[in-house]
Amino acid sequence: MLDIKFIRENKDIVQAGAKKKHVDINIEQLIALDDERLKQLKEVEELRGEVNRVSNDIARDQDETLKIQLIEEMRAVKNEIKTKEEKLKIIIEEWQQLMLRVPNVPDISVPDGKSDEENLEVKGWGDKPVFDFEPKDHIEIMNKLKMVDFERGTKVHGFRGYFLTNDGVRLSFAVWNYTMDFFSSKGFSPIIPPILDRKENFLGTGFLPQGEEDLYKTQDNDYLAGTAEVPLMGMHMGEILEKNILPLKYLGFSPCYRREAGSHGKDVKGLIRVHEFYKLEQVILCEASHETSVKFLEELNRNTEEFIESLGISYHTVINCGGDLGLGQVKKYDIELWIPKENKYREISSTSYYHDFQTRRLGIRYKDENGKMQYAHSLNATAIATPRILVSLVENFQQADGSVLIPEVLQKYMGGKNSIK
RNA sequence: GGAGGGUUCGCAUAGAGGUCUAGUGCGCACGCUUGGAAAGCGUGUAUGGAGAAAUCCAUCAGGAGUCCGAAUCUCCUACCCUCCGCCA
């Protein structure tokens, strides 16, 4: 959510930002509606003031006849208020719906473009593996090494179902433990959050009202979150934080649930796109400063790059174009890992910042040095997601004999083994 | 699942239909006092909105209602506490 004052004062910028994100919204129309809202609000407030004043008179006045007369008068005013309030309520509801749809303004450095195909590569790292044999895809490799069981996975869960088994499980735990150690050393506090969450958390983070179809909903009207970002941001909902505890850096670990409603027919096989997976997520709440947000965006992205580098997998980093940004995102980097068999890069991580878009919806504030209330800024980034990362690990480090080499940094978490056979 | 008690300004509390325009204590800020400090005394100290300002409006968990008037009465929802039941 943007500040209506900001929208009013910068309507051209906001409108241009929406266009860059390919979001269809008419800011002029919103402002006209806001004019009407303010006009009606003023009228209602004036009448309420009158009732308040006269009600006090009624309480003080001793003259019974006058009392009765005033009460009669106020009855009439009250009816007038009721009519006006109903009108105002309709306007406010429409206004709120519109406000929730106004996208945050993308940064000037965000490239134009409609979809992820127009994302801009800003960095490449590492050598792509060269094989002197025909490389296999992760499905074949993992099946053969009994790391996964897709057939029974679909039997039990349905489409996109999987069992991880044996070294598939051990490798997952190794990744999780290594990730914990790696990010803890960078000052992140580990958190296991509730992932079955109430609706407000999703509205606050911007996953709702749009995107309902991609969420699993329970019979209690709660939702399963697709990322720990949702509960970690909700954690401080409605709070006034002490300035000196900022920045808050959290490393959330959680299962993630996604209906993948919009991606039928995409990645229908294997572990790339599944309904249920695990993710370690970096989340930062910091002071309300653009420079600080930008600094942490670079830091978060660099953390994950370093992590991938330590595994030794070739990657590139892209800036997402306007059309590939979420409603609240100002700027986003994706890190994509090399998948040999597919001969292309696939997304493993996503880093973005929001200014106060989320914290305004969630009511996460602090008092600055001048005693002024500020909405904190928020950022989040993937640390690592399993089982997706296993795809890159087994495909990049596969050997001619069908075995898979384990990156050095993971070996101690695999009982010292250097390969999976 | 059942019964009862709660949710008020950063914290703790008062408040039971009309001087509640939410009091008090703690904390915090400023001032007086002092060689300096503490104590003491005084003043101030919730959030959001409208307005150039004076000021006005809203908010006592959230929502709906009764009333000229609601923190206070009624109903619904959420959460917390105690007890009973069930349970890894």
Automatic annotation (TrEMBL):
Pfam families: Seryl_tRNA_N, tRNA-synt_2b. One of its GO terms (biological process) is seryl-tRNA aminoacylation. One of its GO terms (cellular component) is cytoplasm. L-serine binds at T227, A228, E229, R258, E281, N380, T382. It comes from the Bacteria. InterPro entries: aa-tRNA-synt_IIb, aa-tRNA-synth_II, aa-tRNA-synth_II/BPL/LPL, Ser-tRNA-ligase_type_1, Ser-tRNA-synth_1_N, SerRS_1_N_sf, SerRS_core, tRNA-bd_arm. Its main location: cytoplasm. The keyword Nucleotide-binding applies. ATP binds at R258, R259, E260, V274, H275, E276, F277, E347, I348, S349, S350. Residues 137-407 form the Aminoacyl-transfer RNA synthetases class-II family profile domain. The record marks T382 as: Important for serine binding. Its EC number is 6.1.1.11. Homodimer. The tRNA molecule binds across the dimer. Catalyzes the attachment of serine to tRNA(Ser). Is also able to aminoacylate tRNA(Sec) with serine, to form the misacylated tRNA L-seryl-tRNA(Sec), which will be further converted into selenocysteinyl-tRNA(Sec). Belongs to the class-II aminoacyl-tRNA synthetase family. Type-1 seryl-tRNA synthetase subfamily. This is Serine--tRNA ligase. It comes from Candidatus Nomurabacteria bacterium RIFCSPHIGHO2_02_FULL_37_13.
